[in-house]
Amino acid sequence: MNVAALITENLAMKRQAHRADPRAESTRIIELAYEDARLLAAEHLAGLPTSRRYSPLPERRWRVAVALAHLGGVYDFGKGYTSRDPDHLLHCLELGRQRALDNPPRLLTRLPNSRTPKRFYPRW
Question: Does residue 24 sit in helix, strand or coil?
Answer without folding.
Answer: helix
